[in-house]
């Protein structure tokens, strides 16, 4: 079944744990943690201290999206903060193979993502080495943007390649996803959905339950 990874970027940071507490009693298994450096993307979010503090209070799988240049420099810090999977950008790494290897050497799952303008054919050769490929369906940097329709074709290309080659790689989509458009990305073949404003900007528990209702219907 498809899983939801709600982006805490849309939480109220004046009391982050209060929003996370509202997710309890749902089917949720992971949360999405967007780290931005103000250089790779034109926004700054939060860093290791925040991740570590919420790690102490939440058992979820920590699905982390690093929108930072040269993430290789910070891999140990992500690990020490309690990150379970670290997704890095194709465009942000001087030595991508070495960065992926170092994530795995630090006992985290490795995810790879790419900006909407990046040619998907550059990503395909790395699928054998990674645990997750993330299709960005908005320009990385901000929540609340509109879903880019050409992401559907990218998901289909990745789904076909992964299935044809029997690879053990999950496909995640992130940006502009709502309960009203989620079905089309599921139909295209995603395994995981990131949603920020549509979860933490609304009635949190109600929205998570709505997503899981849709996922269950789709898996019948
Ligand atoms: O990585 C990003 C933005 O860079 C996303 O995770 C957004 O935070 C998703 O927010 P919505 O588009 O769902 O509001």
UniProtKB/TrEMBL annotation:
GO terms for molecular function: D-ribulose-phosphate 3-epimerase activity; hydrolase activity. Pathway: Carbohydrate degradation. Keywords: Carbohydrate metabolism, Hydrolase, Isomerase, Metal-binding. Its EC number is 5.1.3.1. A divalent metal cation binds at residues 32, 34, 65, 174. PROSITE patterns: RIBUL_P_3_EPIMER_1, RIBUL_P_3_EPIMER_2. It catalyses: D-ribulose 5-phosphate = D-xylulose 5-phosphate. It is an enzyme of class 5 (isomerase). The keyword Isomerase applies. Substrate binds at residues 7, 65, 141-144, 174-176, 196-197. Pfam families: Ribul_P_3_epim. The active site is at 34 (proton acceptor), 174 (proton donor). Its cofactor is Mn(2+); a divalent metal cation; Co(2+); Fe(2+). Binds 1 divalent metal cation per subunit. HAMAP family: RPE. Belongs to the ribulose-phosphate 3-epimerase family. Catalyzes the reversible epimerization of D-ribulose 5-phosphate to D-xylulose 5-phosphate. PANTHER family: RIBULOSE-5-PHOSPHATE-3-EPIMERASE. This is Ribulose-phosphate 3-epimerase. It comes from Anaerococcus martiniensis. The gene is rpe.
